[in-house]
From TrEMBL, chain A:
Superkingdom: Eukaryota
Entries under PANTHER family matching the protein: COMM DOMAIN CONTAINING PROTEIN 2, COMM DOMAIN-CONTAINING PROTEIN 2
UniProt name for this protein: COMD2 protein
Species classification: Eukaryota, Metazoa, Chordata, Craniata, Vertebrata
PROSITE patterns reported for this sequence: COMM
Domain COMM: 74-141
InterPro entries from the UniProt entry: COMM (IPR017920), Commd2 (IPR037354)
A Pfam match: COMM_domain
TrEMBL record, chain B:
Protein name from the UniProt record: COMM domain-containing protein 3
Record-annotated membrane-spanning stretches: none
Gene assigned in the entry: Commd3
GO BP, sorted A to Z: sodium ion transport
Recorded coiled-coil stretches: none
Organism field: Serilophus lunatus
Residues in COMM domain copies: 80-149
Similarity remark: Belongs to the COMM domain-containing protein 3 family.
A Pfam match: COMM_domain
InterPro entries: COMM, COMMD3
Length: 150, 151
């Protein structure tokens, strides 16, 4: 339908893909993009179309590229349940509270579920430690670094 | 028991029988959390003299709590969390994507090492929102626990 041979079409697509991926990866500004493609010697109209194509799809391409980076298993969700152990084979008449949890993690294109348990004291300890962790981003130290990195 | 110098004159088989009998008695008493009178009655039925019964009960009483803890810890349960460690990092770039500028947490749930093969610690990464979700859910569990203890 385009009246060109397969090879040219393929090269065209590959070139376009490369251009968009590299631009998105580096998150280059509009001006930098325009300067870069200017060297290719296309018409102004084509350059404008290419710039618009870049700006429209940049976010989505970056989202997809983000998925390709090295990853550890990542948090998906957590379910919990309160249990009280009343008796066991070795000991009768117990009152042993426990929190049983199912931790869902995303790992290598799949999802794993792991059953874990903890006691009330450790649960409170976990909450305290993780709340401290969350608070870190608000400290002056972290704020300063974030400001300087941009 | 077999190496004890005070007992070297006694037939080892008899020693083993005594040890097994004493151990069984103690464990059964512990399992059912029997009180002193029940134990005394039981030992009386076994024709032990009063002095021996008193000695046995005193020793039992001394170690009762430790025994209960030990018995309570025997048994199967899901992997038990003992501690948590975390790391906060600020991502700048990777080879696929530059200028990422995102905080990221790495959380490790330390797990109790059991004798039947230790499970590895559970590690995972999460964003700030995900960590907030996790902490929120843990706080819900803690609140429920508090309500349950007030019933």
């Amino acid at each position: 339908k385009l009246n060109i041979d397969v090879d040219t079409a393929q090269h065209g697509v590959e070139g376009l893909t490369y251009l968009l991926i590299e631009s998105s990866k580096l998150m280059i500004s509009e001006n930098d993009f325009q300067d870069s493609i200017h060297a290719l010697g296309f018409s102004d109209e084509l350059n404008k179309s290419l710039l618009q194509l870049y700006l429209d799809n940049r976010k989505e391409i970056r989202g997809i590229l983000g998925e390709l980076s090295p990853r550890l298993p990542s948090y998906h969700s957590l379910e919990w349940r309160l249990d009280v152990q009343l008796a066991s084979r070795s000991l009768r008449q117990q009152i042993k509270p426990a929190v049983t949890m199912k931790l869902y993690l995303n790992q290598n294109e799949g999802q794993t579920a792991q059953v874990l348990q903890t006691d009330p004291a450790t649960l409170l300890h976990l909450i305290q430690q993780l709340e401290q962790a969350l608070g870190q981003m608000k400290t002056n130290h972290c704020r300063r670094i974030v400001r300087h990195m941009k | 028991v077999l190496d004890d110098p005070d007992l070297k004159d006694i037939d080892p088989t008899v020693l083993k029988h005594c040890h097994a009998a004493a151990a069984t008695c103690i464990l059964e008493a512990g399992k059912h959390q029997a009180d002193i009178s029940a134990i005394s009655t039981c030992l009386e039925d076994c024709k032990l003299d009063k002095e021996r019964i008193e000695q046995f009960c005193t020793e039992y009483q001394k170690n009762k709590d430790a025994l209960e803890i030990l018995l309570g810890s025997i048994g199967r349960s899901p992997v038990h969390i003992t501690d948590v460690s975390w790391r906060l990092e600020y991502q700048i770039k990777n080879n696929q994507l530059h200028k990422t500028y995102q905080p990221s947490y790495l959380v490790t749930l330390n797990v109790e090492k059991s004798d039947s093969g230790s499970h590895p610690d559970v590690s995972f990464s999460c964003t700030m929102e995900q960590l907030q979700d996790l902490v929120g859910k843990l706080k819900d569990a803690a609140k429920s626990l508090e309500r349950a203890t007030q019933m």
